[in-house]
Amino acid sequence: MRPFSLLGVQQIAIGGADKQQLRNFWVDLLGIQYKDTFVSEKENVDEDICEVGSGDLVIEIDLMQPLDPTKSPRVDVPALNHIGLWVDDLESAVSWLTEQGVRFTPGGIRKGAAGHNVCFIHPKGNEQFPLSAQGVLVELVQAPKRVIEAYNVLSRG
Questions:
Q1: Which end of the chain is more exposed for a tag (fewer CB within 10 A), N or C?
Q2: Domains in the chain, number
């Protein structure tokens, strides 16, 4: 039996060569709300953290460009960089999924841009860990208690 639950979408990360063009579309035209900026040389990313929705079920939309387009990782290739999913027990999820043969990216569980603990499922399997999301980078995000409770209320609704 799976020792964790996926609760819902935490974020969608979109990459492009020019973050301002992404902002022009997503923020200026569609009206999502800018919240903060996160820059990491280690992850080669300059990202604007935006939000759509409200309350504990808000969805983060990250607009990202590489700091250096000649280095990896390339946050703009593919343009839909990754999807983040809330989980109720990140440590159990990582342990159980690893036992099932899921491949994770290097770095393990760590603090993400929005301050939550995160871990990434590699987009491609290998011999040792053959399971993956078939080309999609998936971020598992530890949901805070208030988010877990909000989803519990929603599911009982």
A1: N
A2: 1
CA 32, CA 48: separation in Å to the nearest integer? 11
CATH number at residue 84: 3.10.180.10
Instruction: Yes or no: say if 92 and 3 are a contact pair by the CB < 8 Å rule.
Output: yes
Summarised one tens digit per residue, pLDDT across range 28-48 is 988 999 999 999 999 999 999
Q: Give residues with Cβ within 8 angstroms of 73, minimum separation 6.
A: 43, 44, 45, 66
The model's pTM: 0.87
Q: Is residue 18 in some structural domain?
A: yes
Of 100, 96, 138, the closest CA to residue 119 belongs to: 138
